[in-house]
């Protein structure tokens, strides 16, 4: 007879030993599982932090953009400080009924040039005499020229502004650069030695404010004065001294004509 002998491991037959093996397996696998969960949670936290940081950054940029845009819009429309009314005498009121000369201005300008008419006898101190003076200056000009006086406006010692070419037409000074972006305002009289009156200066400021209100002049405009070297090296000196203390003062433009 053949005797078959089966060898069975005592560990497999012993329930206690089987439990020990299971405990060991669980003990080995549990730390690995816990590590995986912890790693996943850390990744989720890092990812969440990145998303929040991005949202906060975009929000900050948006707020900055709105703030800067609002400030620039305010500055662009900021009116010139004014304490006096603007007194305008239109072309028809001083005797000229024809349309102004020059090319049309279709945009707001950012430059104002101030000069004097140059004749001592032109200076006028009341509305009636200034209207006559403007009409005489214009008549003398057109006798030797084929077009209007080259100024956009004239301002008299009486504190009134006289429309010559106005806001909608270019000035007629060929020797002055950037004509399509410039208003030329003439002070009636000669201001090489004598300063303009306070009424003229106040009316000039009122002109700035009114031009900005009408959207004909940008609030960030510059003020320049003209010195005609063909007259003298000190031409307009008293006028220049007065203008140079204004907020938007820029420079002196020297010409010869």
Automatic annotation (TrEMBL):
What GO molecular function terms would the record report?
Answer: N-acetylmuramoyl-L-alanine amidase activity; zinc ion binding
What the entry lists under InterPro entries is as follows: Amidase/PGRP_sf (IPR036505), Amidase_domain (IPR002502), PGRP (IPR015510), PGRP_domain_met/bac (IPR006619)
Enumerate the spans annotated as Peptidoglycan recognition protein family domain.
86-230
Top-level taxonomic group = Eukaryota
Tell me, what is an example of a GO biological process annotation in this record?
A: peptidoglycan catabolic process
Q: Which Pfam families match?
A: Amidase_2 (PF01510)
Swiss-Prot/TrEMBL keywords: Immunity, Innate immunity, Membrane, Transmembrane, Transmembrane helix
Which Gene3D superfamilies does this chain map to? Peptidoglycan recognition protein-like
Membrane-spanning ranges: 51-74
Protein family membership? Belongs to the N-acetylmuramoyl-L-alanine amidase 2 family.
UniProt cross-references to PANTHER family, sorted A to Z: PEPTIDOGLYCAN RECOGNITION PROTEIN, PEPTIDOGLYCAN-RECOGNITION PROTEIN LD
Q: What is this protein called?
A: Putative peptidoglycan recognition protein
The source organism is Corethrella appendiculata
């Amino acid at each position: 007879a053949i005797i078959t002998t089966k060898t069975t491991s005592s560990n497999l037959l012993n329930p206690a030993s089987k439990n020990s093996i299971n405990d060991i397996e669980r003990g080995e696998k549990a730390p690995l599982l816990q590590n995986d969960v912890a790693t996943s949670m850390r990744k989720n936290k890092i990812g969440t932090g990145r998303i929040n940081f991005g949202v906060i950054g975009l929000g900050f940029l948006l707020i900055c953009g709105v703030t800067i845009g609002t400030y620039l819009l305010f500055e662009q429309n900021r009116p010139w400080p004014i304490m006096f009314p603007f007194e305008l005498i239109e072309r028809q009121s001083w005797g000229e009924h024809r349309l102004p000369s020059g090319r049309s201005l279709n945009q707001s300008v950012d430059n104002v040039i101030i000069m004097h008419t140059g004749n001592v006898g032109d200076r006028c101190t009341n509305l009636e005499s200034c209207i006559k003076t403007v009409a005489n200056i214009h008549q003398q000009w057109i006798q030797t020229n084929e077009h209007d006086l080259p100024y956009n406006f004239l301002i008299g010692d009486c504190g009134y502004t006289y429309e010559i070419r106005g806001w909608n037409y270019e000035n007629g000074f060929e020797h002055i650069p950037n004509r399509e972006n410039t208003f030329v305002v003439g002070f009636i009289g000669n201001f090489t030695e004598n300063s303009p009156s306070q009424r003229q200066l106040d009316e000039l400021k009122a002109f700035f404010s009114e031009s900005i209100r009408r959207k004909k002049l940008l609030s960030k405009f510059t003020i320049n004065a003209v010195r005609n070297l063909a007259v003298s090296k000190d031409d307009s000196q008293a006028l220049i001294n007065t203008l140079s203390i204004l907020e938007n003062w820029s420079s002196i433009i020297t010409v010869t004509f």
